Amino acid sequence: MRIKGDIIRLVRKQKKLSQVTLAAGICTQGTVSNIENKNVCDSLEILDAICKRLNLSLESVLDDNDEKKLTSLLNQVEELCNTFKHKEAYSLLKETTINVSDFQNKELEVRWFYFMGITNLLGFNNTTDSLFYFYRADELGDSNSIYAILSVNSLGIVYEMANELDKAQVYYEKSIDMLRKMTIKVPIEATKIFFNTAKFYSLTKNYKTAYDLASEGMALNRSYQSLYMLDLLAYEVAFNNFMKSPNLTAPDFSSAKAFATFNNNQSLLNVIKKDEQSLHR
């Protein structure tokens, strides 16, 4: 994709970072050099990570007007999905006249397919269309594509909803394996993968695996100094720790309650209240 490499170079120098320092944990120094001097970057994930390190918005460095518009649209869609407004997010996707297949940017196309899949699934329970979109995202994405990995994880959700738990486990495990093989820093969006997979293993009573995965999700948040889904992750940690530890007399939901109160997550607070009344030894 075409980008404004001069902006990245200017901000990097203002922050007194070398190309090697900027690239650390994200990409090679040569990739940063290509971004700054040739105004090209083949990976949206890499570009996004570099922008975050420089406190730049992704839109501010994209040179292609339609790509900027689509990136902005997908950012809005993601915000709506994060607050469970999947029908509204789907409407935004359907209203756009931008043809994503016209771009050379495959990662943008992968992201588009993921959000078409998740809005169809969680907005309308449309498993047929969501399967198509998730499989296309998996096919198009590379090993560092977080939205391809999210799509594989979402295939697990589809099969879990259909009560095909063996199939669901295959895709949940595949998504975790894909995360382990990423060669860039795992993005914060991977929190969803840890949570969804932990929740599945809790459902199937593999409480230790569920606890470990939810704990990894919390550790990922800690590395980003983020609160992303921490209320839900803290609940899974507390619940599964209790279920796997016969010496505990009751689960410790104190962290989950604090995060849920902060996020005004009343539905989770209701679940915790019910569990506190019923879960004790």
Automatic annotation (TrEMBL):
This is Cro/Cl family transcriptional regulator. Gene3D superfamilies: Tetratricopeptide repeat domain. SUPFAM superfamilies: lambda repressor-like DNA-binding domains, TPR-like. Pfam families: HTH_3. It comes from Enterococcus quebecensis. Residues 8-61 form the HTH cro/C1-type domain. One of its GO terms (molecular function) is DNA binding.
